[in-house]
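ESCALATION

Customer reports they have been waiting on this structure for their group meeting. Please prioritize. Original submission:
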Amino acid sequence: MKKSDFDFDLPPDLIAQAPLARRSGSRLLVVDVGAHTKKDRKFYELPEMLQPGDLLIFNDTRVLPARLYGRKDTGGEVEILIERVTGPHEARAQLGVSKKPKEGGRIELADGSMITVLGREGEFFLLRFESEEPLERLLSRLGEMPLPPYIERGAEEADNERYQTVFAREPGAVAAPTAGLHFDEELLAKLRARGVEMGYVTLHVGAGTFQPMRAEDVRDHVMHREWLNVGAGLVEKIRETRAAGGRVVAVGTTVVRALESATVEGVLRPFAGETQIFIFPGYKITSVDALITNFHLPQSTLLMLVSALAGKEAILESYRYAVLQRYRFFSYGDAMLIVPSKTS
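Update from on-call: job pushed to the front of the queue and completed.
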């Protein structure tokens, strides 16, 4: 299986550069794979598509303002994208700089505080922030929202709210779980009134989610690591939902990754730790019955994940339809509700 098998033509003007005024005002393409149907809906109509007793599972990670700017001790400007906070004063990060710093190199931030380069792990640099201030507090003061590379503008003040879900509570991500961005408090209230249950996992989305696949053979790709937590209470809620005939609906691919990482021999168990799970066609997803997700990049691991759930041809055909209907793509774009067939 090749990454080129997951390519599609996407006009650049369909890549959303900013969110809509209303979170739930985005479009929703409902794809029922078993029934071979596609319906164009609005996201705020989601309660009509769910039944009392269905369980929506969200990722409650909170995005850190993880992009910083500084200057090397040799004078060159540096853009720092935190990939993961690893301690009160330490982090792993990508550095945008013309000449990569060596171990022991120093970077000065805008407020005069210093960073020491401790070493390197592949494409990531290990950094120590030489400040008594905890790193998360420093980021909240100096950092900016780490908008994805395909958004061709700088982060603005409005992104501090809009590139964050309304239910975000566990800080640690450097990219948003974007399917959750469509939910506002009004929609959540309507879902509760409908009798839809809700649960949460935590998966801290890393900057590696935007890294392109370099291996042409899908099986040669090595996934980035991400930390997750699937609690015992959620595991029990999922068991009860299915026992009562309800559906488990994941809000985002990160929820699928979390639940599948916590599934051992077909049994979902509580789990906290790191995952490098890579889900592509041939992998049988058992933890969810439907998925709400945004539209993903060509040849990306996330496109492969949704293809594993619903079938590659069904997904690529749906993407071609979405392009023709001028859906908005990627993080600030529109969404899909995918109901796989029983046999996919």
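Sent to customer with the following note: The chain has a mean pLDDT of 95.
Escalation resolved.
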